[in-house]
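Postdoc handover notes: sequence design on the structure in folder B. Input tokens:
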């Protein structure tokens, strides 16, 4: 450590010992004993914050009381890609049930001004090669992404049996029939041979449990249910309803970073209530030139996914095909390694090198704040003090300059303690009340709580055992996709799986993997597919083992949904992602498919009547 410190001080002017201490102090200020319990569910009196602003609330339809081969719950990116892989495998009878009024998932809900994807469009928009689509910009806007995803659903005929504005209320395994019965808030009772729950990680908006939450008498809404009827304007901004309004926004995460510049443009005055500053890197958005796509070899997108996920998960490589803010730390790691080698000094192990690169990167992020924000006291408050991947990195060229405007005030909430309370008139911080006409909650989504809480309904498996009861001490699965005692049920989520910062990559891997199993079950007349107890125990042991690799990093982090707000108890570790990282995980499941016997799954051939398959295929084609 002494060698490291001297070397860094000499070469880079960075003091790791001081930084470790500063990061610790800033983290400790923010740790709360309630951890995830500090947030409140949008139920009861708060349920209107979840209402869908984009649909006719009086919509009605006939009850469904029939049988399908595959029921997919969720019409976001996961449900769509799973549907695509199932269709490609020849499975015809697919029904999608979706809470929103159309396909799109997070891009259906999040229509706030400035909504766009921080991951480059060439990485984030799936199936670009097959769809022959060229995104308009390097970083695509929310409306463009939503329209594109819906075009995929149309191409793969997923609208045919899709039912929107429908919330599943329960799943019950019928042992005699070997079917799931799926009930909904529309009075449906659907029997399904196989069910896949495609739970988006940002499915349920949440509010901070700030005292007085319900007292505010002005107008308020959550960013994922933007009220354009009140603000005027649209996703491009121009919020002319706010010209004579004092607006407050609580939260400074990736969503606020995108919508604050638009609020700043339009509001008479904007107060930004901050608990922890985000890291704001360069965005550099620009139109994409279709010629950039010319000459790309088939399969380029999957290769690009692999490259991005490799770099962002910290695996050292010389090959950076992405070259943006996400991957910039790899360039720092490379240059550090080269400089060491040139000086004949030993190159630190990759973990140490990554940590040094992180210090350098975050110093750059903090320097950028000083350069952009004119008032040094405001700049100081906007500087993040934690390792970069403790929180979701943000990218914007407009957010920091917004704080130079006379009509924008940053209200730092008592050095990380959060908003004190909400009154009838506004928001109180450090005993001072900020009167507001409109209060916008940019407080994020329910990410780390148990799976069953987040889907919002119970699942009763064999012998009526509830998944919530089985997972009371944490999830138990094979590869995150299925659990013993819950046959023919597949899960797409972040639980016990390999999570890429490019969600499209992660979701595609899961969608393809589950489609492989379902297609084989359909094609080989396998009526029941169930994870064996032994395979599940082995995977849970692997989750526990690899969690240790992550634990030290997560413990040192400032609280966020990445580390369960600092609460790393066993249940949360079991509900967490696979600690071995996404690239090894995708290799594990690819090898599993290649092996051919579907090890760890108990397969029961119960009946001789296979469900319908599509196209002119005599049996489904298995995706590799
Ligand atoms: P986040 O969970 O990232 O942010 C919530 C914000 O609310 C934080 O700044 C948090 O502070 C603040 N907060 C919570 N409680 C209080 C309190 N009591 N007082 C004051 N502030 C409080 O939510 P977002 O909606 O911003 O982002 C969620 C995720 O959505 C992102 O991480 C990202 O994964 C995704 N997203 C993706 C985009 C894309 O490009 N694809 C674009 C936008 C979002 P603190 O930090 O202290 O907890």
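Designed sequence:
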């Amino acid at each position: 450590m002494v060698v490291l410190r001297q070397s860094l001080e000499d070469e880079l002017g960075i003091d790791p010992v001081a930084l470790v201490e500063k990061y610790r102090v800033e983290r400790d200020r923010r740790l709360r004993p309630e951890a995830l319990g500090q947030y409140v569910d949008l139920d009861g009196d708060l349920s209107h914050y979840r209402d869908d602003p984009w649909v006719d609330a009086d919509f009605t339809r006939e009850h469904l009381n029939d049988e399908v081969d595959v029921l997919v719950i969720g019409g976001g990116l996961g449900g769509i890609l799973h549907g695509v892989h199932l269709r490609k495998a020849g499975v015809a009878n697919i029904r999608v049930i979706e809470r929103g009024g159309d396909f799109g998932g997070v891009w259906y809900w999040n229509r706030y001004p400035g909504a766009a994807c921080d991951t480059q469009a060439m990485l984030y928009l799936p199936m670009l090669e097959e769809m022959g689509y060229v995104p308009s910009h390097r970083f695509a806007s929310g409306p463009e992404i939503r329209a594109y995803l819906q075009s995929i659903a149309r191409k793969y005929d997923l609208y045919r049996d899709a039912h929107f504005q429908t919330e599943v209320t329960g799943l019950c395994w019928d042992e005699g029939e070997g079917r799931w019965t799926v009930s909904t808030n529309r009075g449906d009772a659907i029997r399904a041979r196989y069910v896949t729950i495609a739970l988006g990680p940002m499915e349920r908006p949440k509010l901070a449990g700030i005292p007085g939450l319900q007292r505010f008498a002005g107008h308020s809404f959550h960013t994922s249910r933007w009220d354009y009827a009140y603000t005027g304007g649209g996703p491009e901004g121009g919020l002319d309803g706010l010209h004579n309004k004092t607006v407050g926004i609580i939260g400074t995460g990736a969503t606020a970073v995108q919508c604050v510049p638009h609020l700043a443009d339009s509001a008479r005055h904007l107060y930004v209530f901050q608990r922890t500053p985000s890291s704001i890197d360069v965005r550099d958005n620009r139109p994409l030139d279709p010629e950039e796509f010319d000459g790309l070899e088939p399969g380029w997108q999957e290769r690009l996914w692999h490259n991005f996920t490799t770099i962002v998960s910290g695996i050292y490589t010389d090959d950076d095909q992405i070259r943006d803010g996400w991957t910039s730390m790899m360039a720092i790691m490379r240059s550090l390694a080269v400089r060491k080698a040139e000086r004949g000094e030993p190159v630190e192990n990759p973990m140490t090198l990554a940590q040094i690169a992180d210090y350098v990167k975050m110093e750059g992020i903090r320097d950028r704040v000083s350069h952009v924000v004119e008032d040094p006291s405001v700049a100081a408050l906007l500087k993040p003090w934690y390792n970069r991947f403790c929180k979701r990195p943000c990218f914007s060229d407009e957010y920091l300059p917004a704080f130079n405007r006379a009509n924008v005030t940053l209200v730092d909430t008592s050095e990380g303690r959060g908003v004190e309370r909400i009154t009838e008139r506004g928001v109180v911080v450090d005993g001072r009340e900020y009167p507001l006409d409109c209060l916008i909650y940019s407080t994020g989504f329910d990410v780390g709580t148990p799976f069953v809480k987040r889907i919002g309904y119970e699942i009763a498996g064999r012998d009526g055992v509830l998944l919530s009861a089985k997972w009371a001490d944490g999830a138990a699965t094979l590869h995150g996709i299925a659990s013993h005692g819950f046959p023919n049920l597949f899960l797409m989520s972040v639980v016990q799986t390999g999570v890429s910062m490019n969600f499209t990559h992660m979701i595609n891997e899961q969608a393809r993997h589950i489609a492989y199993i379902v297609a084989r079950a359909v094609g080989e007349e396998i009526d029941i597919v169930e994870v064996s107890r032994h395979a599940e125990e082995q995977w849970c042991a692997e989750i526990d083992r690899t969690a240790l690799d992550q634990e030290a990093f997560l413990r040192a982090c400032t609280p966020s949904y990445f580390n369960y707000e600092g609460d790393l108890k066993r249940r949360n570790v079991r509900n967490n992602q696979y600690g071995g990282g996404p690239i090894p995980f995708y290799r594990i499941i690819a090898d599993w498919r290649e092996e051919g016997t579907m090890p760890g799954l108990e397969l029961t051939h119960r009946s001789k009547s296979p469900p319908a398959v599509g196209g002119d295929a005599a049996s489904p084609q298995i995706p590799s």
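Context for whoever picks this up: Residues 35-41+205-283+358-441 form a domain with the FAD/NAD(P)-binding domain fold (CATH 3.50.50.60). Don't rerun without checking with the PI first.
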